[in-house]
Amino acid sequence: MTHEEAFSLMMDALDGALAPAGADRLEQHLAACTGCRAEWSALQLVDDLLAGAPTIPAPAGFAGRVSARLVAASWPRTLGALFTLSVGSVAALLTVAVPAAVVLIATWAALSQPAGFAQLAIGLQQLARMGGAVLGASRTTLRILLVETTGSPLFLSWAVALGLVLAAWAHVLGRPAPVRVRGR
Amino acid sequence: MGDEQAWIGRARSGDKEAFSRLVEAYQTPVYNLTYRMLGNSDEAEEAAQEAFLRAYSRIKQYDAAYKFSTWLLSITSHHCIDRLRKRRLTWLSLDEPLPAQYAAHLASGTPGPEAQAVRSELEDRVQELIDALQPDYRAAVVLRYWYDMSYEEIAQAMQTTVSAIKSRLFRARKMLAAAQTTGTEMAEMV
User: Where in chain B is the domain with CATH 1.10.1740.10?
Assistant: First the structure.
């Protein structure tokens, strides 16, 4: 038997997987080989040391600190969602409230005048023209942005840089700092 | 086990409270693994916290056909291996003579008068032996000895083959035995 074969049998013995025939062969080899006998002693000693080593318990309050980090990790997303929701709600409210207020004021002003209905009609026409002008200006702006500027290298560089900055910002916000404790 | 599956199911739906129950149940196995892999309590705590956060973020990928503990310890051991590789420390070479203090530790076969001190020395000795192994070998040894995992389970946790794990344990044990022999010889010379 070679030393490597003997060592392989020693591994099986440590794992409790050595068949009786193998055990006999190993025993015979160990009786004749001083080097393998020393190695087997060292292996058994290391095996005993490792098998007898205790499990180190988690420090006090560990689970609580993990839970705190779980909550902290979700805060940036929650705050982001709240911000988006708030801005969206205000914008929606303004979109409805401002035209409604204009219509109400115009109606009230028109009805309080002698020639109220005629002036109301004129006011509504002006409002419609203003709305049309705003829509036209928006469409023109959008067209300029999407069609004419997106092709320019300057715009593309700016868009890429903005994307990178936003991604870096989101990455930084999404990484909660570890909760440190004093060493035991 | 029924509770555990229920907690996992709720955690999959984003229930942090349910995941906290899993943290409570597995905090010691995870912490012990990070401590044995990294060798100091501060880094072990940080790594264990990170391992749980990673487990939470990936819990939808957990396959219930396997043991949750194996999956969790797999995440933990990979995280520890990554940390060890980033450390860029000069590893204690097992081919070189060990420090005299370490050698004396290895040679002390009989318990001293202060049982607590002896136990502490034994624990130090075990940790020093493990610290001398390279990360992949270290993980295999820790999972084998502290978690009583079979070769198949270790292979599954470390995402490799059973023969690779056998080879790692074979070589790790050989290195540890060599360190043990060298340490004893040095202590006898002191």
Answer: 1-89
Residue pair B128/B102 in contact by the 8 Å Cβ criterion = yes
And the tokens for B48?
């264990």
Q: What are phi and psi of B110, to 5 degrees?
A: -110, 145
Q: Would you say residue B143 has pLDDT above 90?
A: yes
Q: pLDDT tens, A69-121?
A: 988 876 655 566 677 777 778 888 888 888 888 878 877 776 777 676 777 77
Nearest-CB residue to B45 (from A59, A67, A70): A59
Taking CA–CA distances from A44, the nearest residue in chain B reads B177
1.10.10.10, 3.10.580.10, 3.60.120.10, 3.40.640.10: CATH of B93-190: 1.10.10.10
Rounded (5°) CA angle A75-A76-A81: 95
Residue of A nearest to B19 (CA): A67
Q: How far is B123 from chain A (nearest CA, A)?
A: 7
The residue among B134, B86, B109 whose CA lies nearest residue A44 is B109
Q: What is the mean pLDDT of residues A117-129?
A: 82
In this predicted structure, what is the pLDDT of residue B102?
41
pLDDT for position A173: 67
Out of A8, A11, A51, whose CB is closest to B145? A51
Complex ipTM tops 0.95: no
Size of interface A-B (CB pairs under 8 A): 111
